[in-house]
Amino acid sequence: MSAFEYQLQRSMRRKTLSIVIRRGEVKVLAPVFLSKNTIAEFIVAKTPWILQKLQTQKAWVEQNDQEQKQFVEGETFLYLGESYPLSVGAASKSEVTLHNGYFIVNVSNRVKPENRANHIKGLMQDWYKQQLSDYLDHQIAHFADVIGVVHTGVNVRSYKRRWGSCSSKGQLSFNFLLMMAPSWVIDYVIVHELCHLTHMNHSPRFWAMVQQFYPRHKEAKAWLKVEGGNLRLE
User: Fold this and answer.
1) Rounded CA gap, 86 and 97, in Å?
2) CATH architecture, range 76-230
3) Rounded to 5 degrees, what are φ and ψ at 15?
4) Domain edges within the chain
5) CA triplet 216, 222, 224: central angle to 5 degrees?
6) Helix ranges restricted to H, the chain
7) Which residues of the chain have pLDDT under 70?
8) What's the rounded Cα separation, in Å, for the pair 204 and 217?
């Protein structure tokens, strides 16, 4: 008996077996000529991968189902793994600061009440992006020197389902929400992407390289799987 439910779809045109997972539903696509035993063996072999994908999709669904942020007084937001309450005030100029254990957001008097929440959200997103950019400047330089790799640029972006990426041209990109995670988790993502400058895949050689330069990578990866859904500004 399988550890999960799945739908089997056979096709005259299909030549190989494949698996599609969308919104927590598993579909096995198979040629008509394959036996049930062959399909079952294929599913058993792919079970660890399927369960991992189902867990990842479940985490993102749960994240989207969480109550949306209101950007009001007392609401908490993460920064480097710690939670800080929001303190909202009025001023001639809009700005965000982290001071004495509070996110202090001053909102310009020119902002209309109905636009206040979106305005604060934008302010905080810009603040997180700048903080991560400053953090990356130092840490990427450090780890790139230790690993012995050279990148062609660094970007801070808004991603829905990834923490970082490395292009074939050596451009590194990072999700601004990483600034909400503990520093040791951010450093793992940095090392992960820097190692892609040498290995543009997730081969054993790639993971061996990550292990060499960041031994806590398994712990950090597990932390992101469990806690990643809490890193949000929505």
Assistant:
1) 10
2) 2-Layer Sandwich (3.30)
3) -105, -20
4) 6-65, 76-230
5) 105
6) 36-65, 116-147, 183-195, 204-213, 217-227
7) 1-3, 23, 57-66
8) 14
Q: What are the structure tokens assigned to 212, written together? A: 């060499």
Q: How far is CA 130 from CA 35, 91, 176, in A?
A: 56, 21, 9
d(CA 178, CA 140): 14
What pLDDT is recorded for position 229? 87
Name the 3-class secondary structure at 6.
strand
Q: What is the DSSP letter of 66?
A: S
Adjacent-strand bridge partners of 31 = 11
Q: What one-letter code names the amino acid at 172?
A: L
Could you tell me the CA-to-CA distances from 103 to 31, 109, 126, 187, 230 in Å, in that order?
A: 57, 19, 14, 24, 17
Written as one string, the DSSP assignment of 206-223 is HHHHHHHH-TTHHHHHHH
Q: In one letter, which amino acid is 226?
A: V
125-153 tens-digit pLDDT? 999 999 999 999 999 999 999 999 999 99
Give pLDDT tens digits for 59-86: 655 555 557 899 999 999 999 999 999 9
- What is the Cα Rg of the chain in Å? 22
Q: Say which residue the tokens 């045109």 belong to.
A: 13
Helix spans in 148-182 (H)? none
Strand partners, 174: 156, 164
Asked if residue 31 lies in contact with residue 10, where contact means CB atoms within 8 angstroms, the answer is yes
188 closest CA partner among 160, 210, 157, 156: 210
